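step 4 of 6: structure.
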Amino acid sequence: MKIHEYQAKVILTEFGVPVPRGRVATTAAAAAAIAQELGGTVVVKAQIHAGGRGKGGGVKLARSPQEAEQVASQILGMMLRTHQTGPEGQKVKQVLVEEGMDIRQELYLGIVIDRKAGLPVIMASSAGGMEIEEVARTRPEAIVKTHVDPATGVTGFHTRKLGYGLGLKGDLLKGGSDFIGKLYRAFWVKDCSLAEINPLVLTGDGRLLALDAKMNFDDNALSRHPEIQALRDLDEESPLEVEASKFNLNYIKLDGNVGCMVNGAGLAMSTMDIIKLAGGEPANFLDVGGGASAEQIENAFRILISDRNVRAVFINIFGGILRCDRLAEGVIKAVKTLGVRLPIVIRMEGTNVELGQRMLRQSGLNFITAQGMKDGAEKAVRAARSA
Amino acid sequence: MSILVDKGTRLVVQGVTGKEGTFHALACREYGTKVVAGVTPGKGGIVHERIPVFDTVAEAVAKEGANTSLIFVPPGFAADAILEAADAGIRVIVCITEGIPTLDMVKASRALQGRAVRLIGPNCPGIISPGKAKVGIMPGQIHKPGRVGVVSRSGTLTYEAVGQLTARGIGQSTCVGIGGDPIIGTTFVDALRLFQADPETDAILMIGEIGGTAEEDAAAFVKVHVTKPVVGFICGQTAPPGRRMGHAGAIISGGTGTAAEKMAAMKKAGITVVKSPAEMGEAVASLLPSAPARRRAAKGAARAAAKPKARAKTKASAKKAKRR
């Protein structure tokens, strides 16, 4: 789960990680008031989840409260397009108004899980402000890494190694070590999947501050963090995906016209792949999971047909525990209840296949049965083309 | 592969009295696995579906000689269940549970290091050595004993692959579902190492997906250490970056973890990479010795299935037809 920069900074403040003074505003007038309160030059920053806001025109300086109001009125309500948003962009509903900083140096600090090592890894680089992947590619020696063993947590030698790697000395090394330790604590306690400070700035007067903050959270751990769940911004998620999550359906909307309904993430991804191989475009990823009860199937159909682009549906179910007659029953009921008119291609494998297929044939509805994934994908793509 | 799961497996099911636990404990037993005990803290002393239930895994080990564990414990408690099994001396732990917080697994996997225990999963369908034992939730009836090892991050996609193999008369030595989470107990490399050393495995099928670098690591291992033929498939070739596709581990971020990169790495290592999920079985078939004979047999079987069933007029003619 992702959150906004201003929300991440509130969390960091809780853990004692220094951030610039600032507050979030939803109106231009409020932005002006905050600028007045902060005094001096402020930065007005669009609050969307995607990165690249500066380049997209979503981050502007303002030298007075009047200018802050003007700048905020331009940014609020804009459809901000960045290299991470997609072509339509994301509507800006909030801006963070922050004190301007006298930046002497920009550093990078980030914490992620290293899957191969099975441990959190802290990365630091004096090449801050850039995309870390760019640095990793062009100047890997500029990144210092240290893994943290859960048995010890982050300790002195970790933070010193990183601090020296950042080129910090004396009091700054102490400050840097302290900063890193507190960031790690926030990462650990809040079950983050990512905590990234880019840039971590060293100011003219020798302070270290998180100028930007990106925190992502482990979806699997959200149930033990209601305070993080409360930070969810539904406007950043596609309405269909929000709807699907209410039913515990794993759904991701794509751009094509062949809707798919599959049990199991790997099989669902393969179904998208084979639709493409058959010359079509998948409209979505949808994993109905192991249960696939009649209710789940109806919910899944409801989500699928809400996507106006869908011209045909490919149901690819490999049952194990799931019985094909139960599946057929669920599908028939859903189609009747929802009045689905789209052509539906069904490929079923598992227990009671013949019974399930017979039920579909005898239902009087527009079902096309398929033998195998390839046959199913080809039939679905053809059906979508001629629909 | 007799090393992980075989006729010597004595299984304890953690979470046996729950709905999932009960269903699958019985399914494993029906398949032929020796299900010797169950554990549900607080319910020790009862007999559930003819399975003795204990409060702790240690008791299941002491009283019933359990050596393998199958975990159906909810995500908030599953890491603890893994640790308990390891502490009790279980040698092979299969954790089915999906949704375990990543940091819980960071702690658990660190605690297991250096111990003589193998964890498979979490968030996996389990392991089956067809004809010997099933420790998982896969449908036993689609499997066939044989000599191809299958290792996969997925659940139902593995069944798809197994279905294709079985339909071609190609049996499986062991199928290992390593699971879809970012931190798992057994990697592709671990499974490949075991398959390479297994005298009952002639070829290997590995099924990967987007996210992480496990397949690239596997490719590097195959290049140096695996002499048996390997077929690979990566699902998620059409997945958009930055989105989690179901499995917690299936996220492409920052350009790494793409299907294209994995397929390229695997090809370089000499792995036969298939593009279509419908061609996994065919690719394995073409790599096995006596591939032409196998293909003839498969064609014959397909033709026979397509013919309308001949009506036996008498018992004698039915017997004659059977003998043919």
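step 5 of 6: annotate
 - The first helix of chain B runs from residue 19 to 31.
 - Chain B touches chain A through 61 residues (CB under 8 Å).
step 6 of 6: archive
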